Amino acid sequence: ALYNSKTESRGQTTLYSSQHEQQIRSDRAIESALQAADLDQEFEVFLQPIFDLQHGEISGYEALARWTSPHLGVVPPDQFIPLAERSGLMRQLTQSLFNKALESITFLPPKHTLSFNLSAHDITCSETVMMLLGAIARMKVAPSRIVFEITETSVMNSYEIAEQSIRLLRGAGTMIALDDFGTGYSSLGYLHRLPIDRVKIDKSFIAEKGTKSSWKVITSIIALCRSMAIDCVVEGIETEAQKQSLKNLGCRYLQGHLIAQPMRAAEIPDWLERSGY
Ligand code: C2E
Ligand code: CA
Ligand code: CA
Ligand code: CA
Fold first, then answer.
1. What SS3 class is residue 265?
2. What is the pTM (predicted TM-score) of this model?
């Protein structure tokens, strides 16, 4: 429900189209297309810039998976990630996506970071965690440039194992972001118990057309993060007014269509030049 297809389809580089949106695909159809998919061919990784309000520059990018199935057309990640998890395909999919994400880092300025989403299965699978660390080493990417985004919901189900994975990844020098912050049950508890570098405030707090109550939540989370010396990113920023409000609140990072839609890594050097960042 958080997925705003109207806004997404406005951009030029986006793969979503209204024709595809109207196509109704059953979970079963998606699942069997996934089973048969050539992961390396059909999947792509798009990058969305993360803006540093304090310095007025781009600080990094979030990798977002894009799937164009030859049978079904474009299927959004909110639909295929849960099904990949359910049908035991997550490990291979994550491996393929992470390799693509790491390959895309060559297009980025050396100081910029790359954030990668991990699913509930990823964070509880030790082979996946070892694979992630192995890929970073093999590609000779500085671990400090990699941020793993993990939702509180995925940590919740098997807390002990998830905590081990998080400590392992972070021990190797990568950063950890708590994703979709504020939408789950025990966000505050995790902030305190886990070594978290960054919190991402979900766009659902923004999407409510800036109602007073959601801004109160955002304001308190920003203050909380500051008191714990944790970086804060607000996602789903679409207007200059929202950006100004965040700046006034002392929020450091934002992400959203106001800055840029997700795009291919190869487009980023040009985009950086055009936008003056
Ligand atoms: P997320 O991690 O919360 O990612 C942010 C979502 O917000 C993305 O949707 C992004 O395109 C969208 N977005 C960014 N700025 C704006 C804006 O200004 N307005 C609006 N309305 N939306 C904006 P997307 O790309 O459809 O991804 C949906 C979810 O799928 C992600 O939510 C994430 O949970 C999951 N996902 C995407 N790629 C991967 C992946 O490689 N691995 C895993 N495990 N999950 C992924
Ligand atoms: Ca994310
Ligand atoms: Ca999500
Ligand atoms: Ca989110």
1. helix
2. 0.91
